[in-house]
Design brief:
The chain is of the alpha/beta class. The protein has 16 helices and 22 strands. The structure holds 7-thionicotinamide-adenine-dinucleotide phosphate.
């Protein structure tokens, strides 16, 4: 299986000898995060105990140790949170001028930046993601969303001229565990900028950053009830999105749950946006800048352990360069450092939860059983925690499960093509349509491919780039509606004459 060595780094001595070396541990201190033993619900600006009197355990995926106990909300708690959000909408938030709402959003953005180290450590502790990613991507991007939408709050009539943009009311928002703080920002920032109030349910595996965000709301003096956070299992999410006094539902997560939510909302006048799964094609032409493309492929699938809805999980390499490209990719894989998420040198952290690890293992076994060739570098995995080696499959059939199903893990399926038409046909042969990547030096080819790929986002000569000004969303079973940019505002507004 493995080809690499435990220590892929070495100095050449000039006489042909290689002296191997290892990275010294460089752990970020977790002292900055002060965890309480228990977290209640955040309703009406206060932390309240759940009516159930029940709590569930939140664990660190890298150690399997308990981080805190989290409140298990009841349907009555959901009802209370929606009622509080409704009153805050009527009494405070919808009556404030946009420029006043903007002040709160700017304040939240600034506090997130001031507390960025704390949030970065927290995201890595709770989610298993490498600290360099939570520090350089999750937290700065979350703050950037609040900065960006703060700027829109008093300019809605300029964003939609000759219309009458009005907030929808109470937004029910349900988010997943792969980017807990960032998904919260994607949901809360545009909702608040547009004048809505929210009730948000984080994933049960990663509730902490949302609960710390409650503290940010208090610090920013946000009027009570404008943001409410409830925690609990999927059925509490179901109760929230089905609540009759909710005007808008925004969900990010699996396609299966997205369909359930679609059914729950059907026949009501609730507005709905769904951000679901993906199986993105990353397409490498023979004239691509190869060094950059290798980095783009690695970033595309191993960033956040591949637990990314828009991950470049299907690699299409033009046949003429496939063999050398795959060799170089394997060499690059052998240099990835897998381990402690809090270590600043770690490239691939822990898998978020045990169920997800089991799903990855099952699909990788299916890939082997279906006859694909597996490559995994011979890196050592920590003895405790949920870890999985970066994995690459070659000889993959289009019909194989690993080419069709979303694995949501550090697993890449490599396929080949000869012509641009064949690349398009194979890339579009999926039930998903969230994202894609094209690597070539020809601008005209990029434009041609972009117009034919059925994907909401297409990156050219880069991958996994996010910006608050840019809309993001899918085709087909990847969902509908857009988040980010002006499109993201639109999802929280009634422009008059229907939305
Ligand atoms: P889901 O089960 O879809 O969970 C996402 C969120 O929905 C969580 O907050 C979850 O709560 C809640 N939820 C579960 N069942 C619900 C229901 N019937 N009604 C309303 N809310 C409900 O996703 P997951 O278990 O976190 O991940 C499983 C798969 O989802 C992954 O393998 C991946 O394919 C996909 N996924 C996609 C994305 C994106 S960004 N598209 C992100 C994460 C996961 P609990 O956490 O309490 O169950």
């Amino acid at each position: 299986m493995g080809r690499g060595t435990a220590s892929p780094n070495s100095w050449a001595l000039g006489d042909g000898q290689q002296v191997p070396w290892e990275y010294a541990p460089a752990p970020e201190s977790r002292e900055i995060v002060q965890l309480k033993s228990r977290y209640g619900l955040f309703i009406g600006g206060k932390e309240v105990a759940p009516r159930s009197g029940q709590w569930f355990t939140d664990v660190d995926p890298a150690t399997e140790e308990q981080l805190a106990e989290i409140a298990r909300a009841t349907v009555e708690d959901v009802d209370q949170a929606v009622g509080v959000a409704r009153r805050a909408f009527k009494r405070d938030w919808s009556t404030l001028p946009g420029s006043e709402r903007a002040k709160y959003l700017f304040r939240i953005a600034r506090i997130l930046q001031e507390r960025s180290r704390e949030f970065a450590v927290l995201e890595s502790l709770d989610g298993g993601k490498p600290i360099k990613e939570s520090r350089d991507v999750d937290v700065p991007l979350a703050a950037a969303h609040f900065w960006y939408y703060a700027g829109w709050a008093d300019k809605l009539e300029y964003a939609f001229p000759n219309r009458d943009p009005q907030p929808l009311g109470v937004a029910a928002q349900v988010i997943p565990w792969n980017f807990p703080l960032l998904m919260l920002a994607w949901k809360i920032a545009p909702a608040l900028a547009a004048g809505n109030t929210v009730v948000l349910k984080p994933a049960s595996a990663t509730p902490l950053s949302a609960l710390f965000f409650a503290d940010v709301c208090r610090q920013a003096d946000l009027p009570a009830g404008v943001v409410n956070i409830i925690t609990g299992p999927g059925e509490i999410g179901q109760a929230l999105v089905s609540h009759p006094d909710v005007d808008k539902v925004a969900f990010t997560g699996s396609t299966a749950v997205g369909k359930e939510i679609g059914r729950a909302v059907a026949g009501t006048d609730k507005a709905l946006t769904l951000e679901l799964g993906g199986k993105a094609a990353n397409i490498i032409f023979d004239d691509a800048p190869i060094d950059q493309a290798i980095e783009g492929v690695v970033n595309g699938i191993y960033f956040n352990q591949g637990e990314v809805c828009c991950a470049g999980s299907r690699l299409f390499v033009q046949e003429s360069i496939a063999a050398p490209f795959i060799e170089r990719l394997k060499d690059r894989l052998s240099t990835l450092r897998v381990g402690d998420p809090l270590d600043k040198n770690t490239d691939v952290g822990a898998i978020n939860n045990a169920a997800q690890l089991a799903k990855i293992e099952e699909l990788v076994e299916a890939g082997v059983a279906e006859g694909a060739d597996i490559y995994q570098p011979a890196c050592e995995l920590p003895a405790r925690g949920w870890f999985f080696r970066p994995t690459l499959f070659t000889n993959v059939a289009q019909s194989s499960r690993i080419a069709q199903e979303e694995i949501f893990g550090p697993v890449l399926s490599v396929l080949t093509f000869r012509t641009p038409a064949e690349a398009i046909e194979k890339a579009n042969n999926t039930m998903y349509g969230l994202s894609a990547g094209v690597w070539t030096e020809k601008g005209s080819r990029i434009l041609d491919m972009v117009s034919k790929l059925r994907a909401g986002v297409v990156w050219a000569n880069t991958f996994n780039r996010f910006d608050p000004t840019s809309p993001f969303g899918g085709y087909k079973e990847s969902g509908y509606g857009r988040e980010g940019g002006m499109h993201g505002l639109l999802a929280y507004l009634d422009l008059g004459g229907g939305h």
